[in-house]
Specification:
Blueprint (H helix, E strand, L loop, with lengths): L1 H14 L10 H12 L5 H8 L4 H14 L5 H13 L23 H15 L4 E15 L22 E17 L2 E8 L7 E11 L2 E9 L20 H7 L4 E14 L5 E11 L14 E10 L4 E12 L8 E12 L7 E14 L11 E14 L8 H4 L1 E11 L13 E14 L2 E12 L15 E12 L1
Antiparallel strand pairs: 1-2, 1-16, 2-3, 3-4, 4-5, 5-6, 6-7, 7-8, 8-9, 9-10, 10-11, 11-12, 12-13, 13-14, 14-15, 15-16
Helix pairs in contact: 1-2, 3-4, 4-5
């Protein structure tokens, strides 16, 4: 009777699909031990089953032995063999994955930063990820104009001390926190230690609930132009252009809401086709500032990838209002631009950029006297730039890390001063530079700028003090990760 009970258990286990785990499962091992103890399995058969290797092999071996001993007839043997072969093999146990660091794995201080990021994620939930990063730029500049105290220079776009013509200076010392709360939502916070007014730079939440569209709410980089749309470590030269500094500086960042749509693909012949558009509604008063009028500013940028690998062509607009003082009320603050960005596939390492900007903005007179005559000033500017990384020429590493760069730019601050023989508020700037990449996270930059102004700039007080021309040497150490 016990023999038939044991036989029934064996057949039932096989038919139920439990036998595939025979080599590992505790109950199956106990069954083999019972069959051996009852004499159904001899020592050799017992060892064959134990050493079968895989669960399916052990199943078949047991069936073969029981069939050979006459315990199972031909019909049941064939039926159970078919079932054993068809039964799914459970996967081997997989250990719980170790927490994945948010960093890149080879960034500076990766271990320490990853520990902080993982700790935040563990405290916040399974879907939360955090990345901590930094920008650091420190440099030296020498300007032969000996600018007076309080004058404005392009590399900062803000007042500088009286020794600005020969000084070491910190440009950016920023730390940022990027977090994804779910696959559809996240936030970013960035602080800057070099600001004299407010450390907060980025503070926004983003949402990806609309297909191919991201909605951003908070304080962010405004989607205007090509020059200012890039972070400093994405630029081939140290300074932003004169036209961007004049027309866009206070609105590099602003507070409001932005929607960005992007769609890209390729045709049957492999040529790229796609584009995108970003639009924003903002205060129009810059970083950490409340609106000073009853209207919001509307701006955006649209771009396309027109069937040429590596080429992007874009256009930007800004339609806003400004209130210089309580006497004159709201006035226009508009600007427009077109740009291109080209990194040709046939010349890897080459980067070409260009942009044209035009602006209409209401300015006070240099004295700032609200009773004086004030007017709309129209400005225009453009630039072309190029850079080439030598590491694509097969040179030794110490030479391949070199990246020559150059840019030519033009700016006319006030088109109304044009005459038949001169442009009294215009200037040009030719910049020659070379970058040396220490690694993918850091580089040394050296720029020599040659600024030329026709007949001395008229006192429009828009960008800098009067200057017939000057030369500027600037070096910069950049680190980001």
């Amino acid at each position: 009777m016990r023999f038939f009970v044991v036989l029934f258990m064996a057949v039932a286990l096989l038919a139920a699909g439990i036998a595939p785990a025979l080599a590992e499962d505790t109950a199956s091992i106990s069954l083999i031990e019972v069959l051996k103890a009852k004499g159904i399995l001899d020592e050799a058969s017992y060892n064959e089953i134990k050493n079968a290797g895989s669960p399916q092999a052990a199943d078949q071996k047991l069936l073969d032995i029981l069939h050979a001993k006459g315990v199972i007839d031909d019909t049941n043997y064939q039926k159970l063999s078919d079932q054993a072969k068809a039964a799914p093999v459970p996967p081997a146990p997989v250990p719980a994955p170790a927490p994945v660091a948010s960093g890149s794995g080879d960034r500076p201080m990766d271990k320490a930063l990853s520990s902080l990021e993982e700790g935040f994620a563990r405290l916040s939930g399974d879907t939360v990820k955090m990345k901590i990063g930094t920008w650091f730029q420190f440099g030296y500049t020498n300007d032969d104009t000996r600018l007076a105290g309080g004058a404005q220079v392009p590399f900062q776009g803000a007042s500088t001390p009286s020794n600005a013509s020969n000084t070491f200076y910190p440009r950016f010392m920023r730390i940022y926190f990027n977090s994804t709360l779910t696959d559809k939502m996240g936030f970013r916070i960035m602080l800057d230690g070099t600001s004299s007014t407010s450390a907060l730079r980025d503070a926004f939440v983003w949402f990806d609930y609309i297909p191919k569209t991201r909605v951003t709410v908070g304080q962010f980089v405004t989607p205007f132009g090509d020059d200012t749309w890039h972070a400093p470590f994405e630029l081939p030269l140290i300074n932003y252009t004169m036209s961007s500094t004049l027309m866009q500086w206070t609105n590099f960042r602003d507070m409001g809401v932005m929607a960005a749509y992007k769609n890209s693909g390729k045709l049957g012949n492999g040529l790229p086709i796609g584009g995108g558009v970003s639009m924003a509604l903002v205060n129009g008063t810059g970083v950490n500032a409340a609106d000073n009028n009853s209207r919001k500013d509307f701006l955006g940028r649209v771009y396309i990838n027109p069937l040429v690998p590596g080429l992007t062509v874009g256009g930007s607009w800004y339609l806003g209002k400004t209130r210089p003082n309580q006497v004159v009320g709201d006035k226009n603050n508009d600007r427009f631009g077109v740009d291109f960005d080209y990194a040709p596939a046939y010349a890897k390492g080459l980067q070409l950029r260009g942009e044209y900007l035009r602006a209409r903005k209401y300015y006070n007179t240099p004295t700032g006297n609200p009773t004086a005559v004030n007017r709309i000033v129209q400005s225009e500017g453009w630039y072309v730039s190029g850079a080439y990384r030598l590491n694509n020429l097969g040179l030794p590493a110490y030479l391949g890390n070199i990246e020559p760069a150059a840019r030519y730019e033009y700016l006319d601050e006030d088109l109304s001063t044009r005459t038949a023989v001169s442009r009294q508020s215009s200037r040009t700037n030719t910049t020659i530079g070379v970058n040396y990449w220490l690694n993918k996270y850091s580089r040394l930059m050296f720029n020599y700028e040659m600024v030329s102004a026709q007949r001395g700039l008229q006192r429009t007080n828009l960008l800098t003090s009067d200057s017939v021309g000057h030369k500027v040497f600037t070096t910069n150490m950049q680190i980001w990760f």
